[in-house]
Write a structure and sequence with these properties.
By secondary structure, this protein is mainly alpha-helical. 52% of the residues lie in helices and 0% in strands. The chain has seven helices and no strands.
Length: 124
């Protein structure tokens, strides 16, 4: 029994450390700008708000993201950082948080919806 618990725990830890598969939507397939109002609606309907709500401790805070996003990963613009954070969240795990963000938003959203969500997030 104890070995089973240890094995399952190790499998969960290793799966959380796995990188995400490449996005099914390429960055250059996402429009440069989007509709911020629609992005805000997507933020709530795609359940982003459940983890990224103000005061939550299970996910990084998004307030001021637009000011930080372009300097988080060297060589990535704010737009690129947001794109990969949404579509391939395992690429860059924010310190203090695990790799728990779903990695299927690119499968559940269109390229235009991704642009809308990114536009909204860049306005925070």
């Amino acid at each position: 029994m104890r070995i089973t618990v240890i094995a399952v725990t190790l499998m969960l830890i290793l799966s959380a450390c796995a990188t995400n598969p490449p996005s099914t939507i390429p960055l250059d397939g996402v429009p440069e700008t989007g509709d911020s109002a629609n992005g805000e609606a997507l933020f709530t309907t795609q359940i982003c708000i459940a983890c990224h709500i103000e005061g939550a401790t299970g996910a990084p805070q998004l307030a001021g993201l637009s000011e930080r996003a372009g300097s988080i990963v060297e060589g990535q613009s704010a737009r690129e950082y947001l794109f990969y954070s949404i579509t391939e969240p395992g690429q860059h795990i924010v310190e203090g948080f695990g790799n728990v963000m779903p990695n299927n938003y690119d499968e559940n959203m269109t390229s235009s919806e991704l642009a809308d969500l990114m536009e909204y997030l860049l306005g925070l």
